[in-house]
Amino acid sequence: MKKAWQLEYDVFSKAKPVILSEEEQTWDAANEFERLADIKYLMKWNSNVPGSGAPEKVIVGAVQSMENMGYDVSEAEKMIHEGLKAYQDKDLLSVIRITNELWNLFGKLEKIEGHKYFKYQVYDNFNQYKLAVTFPKKRFVDIESKDFFKSTYMGWLAQFVGGAFGTAMEGYTHDNLLKTFGEIRDYIRKPNTYNDDVTYEIAFLEAFSKKGYNVTSKDIALEWVALVPFGWSAEEIALKNIEAGIFPPESGYFNNPYREWIGAQMRGAICGMVAPGDLETAAELAFKDGVVSHHNNGVLGEVFNAIMVSMAYVENDVRRIVSECIELIPNDSEYYSIIKKAYEVCLKHDNWLHAWKELEGDFKEYNWIHAYPNAAAEVVALWFGNGDFNETLYIVGMIGYDVDCNAAQIMTIIGVIDKEIPSKWTDPIGEKINTYCRKYKETSFTELTNWTIDSIKKFR
Predict the structure, then answer these.
(1) Which helix (H) or strand (E) is 148 found in, with range?
(2) R_g (Cα) of the chain, nearest Å
(3) Where are the extended beta strands (E) located within 387-450?
(4) Fewer Cβ atoms within 10 A, N terminus or C terminus of the chain?
(5) Has this prediction a pTM greater than 0.70?
(6) How many CA atoms lie within 13 A of 427 on its CB side?
(7) CA 328, 120, 255 angle in degrees (round to 5)?
């Protein structure tokens, strides 16, 4: 085997001089790279969510998130105002400088003494997690049965229905959705299957289909960079980290202010699907997947959704799934305090809106993409939807926030249990799936289901 210097010298020593035309000397690609780089910088300061048009400033959200995690952001907030002015003045070079100054600052922020975030336990790894909870025994699921195929098929279909329904309305409050659309009980526009959430679940399934239950976070990370061409917020940072040789778990938390946003929580369902009735394995897989791009509470959000989907294969009572899975999140974590309070508030009220209105004020300081408000939204929708597909989807939609992520995850639970979805939701979706994931730009629900089940059979 040739050494690296030999390979390189072979190329250099055999190169024949040529004369390029004027056209060939022009670096058109450089201009395109510059244009794309400029767009990415500007979008950090002002953009609109592709599916819903909701306005967002993710660089401001980054500063907001660092404060949520107990860091003093006073200097960063000054820079934010400078950056917003530079953006308004169309001063691109200043925008670029300030953006990178902020990213440098994120790694140097000092902790706020006595901040509530530090009163809770931080969960860095799954072994630590296992010591904090007692998982129920694994329950048998016949993966060879037609019933299992139908549950898994309907789980996937329900997930895409939820995502398609929610994509058009994410990034808004309940009040503003109600004022604009009234009560939303159907798609508000023609749905499609394009959704960034499922891209990462496909990457997980690609890794799982090769390594099974021994899959590692590194295996998943390598499928991310192979299959996913771009990301946003936490996933963008993770992809950059992985490409720079920073692998999990560091890829999830290194200079990643979005590490407790919804990005891991939005992809837990697949981990539950490949571990039906085995909540501990579902949790472990979710932890492995979560640390690729998130940390601590961000990862716990993925575990929560994974164990609920896993339990849906062996339990038909949605309220029991919610209540029991909440108690499988470590009770000294901040994430637990959020979902536990949401559950307790549900018990106090006889309708979802009263419950949500009591909870909503708790989340003013959190970004609408943060895991916490969306975890609470899931609990409320599942509790008051109580297994009814239409009602659950209606509630999670009307709550607002990151609707597509929330709806996709919790509707997977309902699909697995019911194995039936009203045709008004499925007919506009059809059988074909389109994604922006390399290798899987077009597939079908049947193919995705078979792939999922075949991967389980291969390693069980």
Answers:
(1) helix 146-167
(2) 23
(3) 400-401, 432-434, 442-444
(4) N
(5) yes
(6) 4
(7) 100
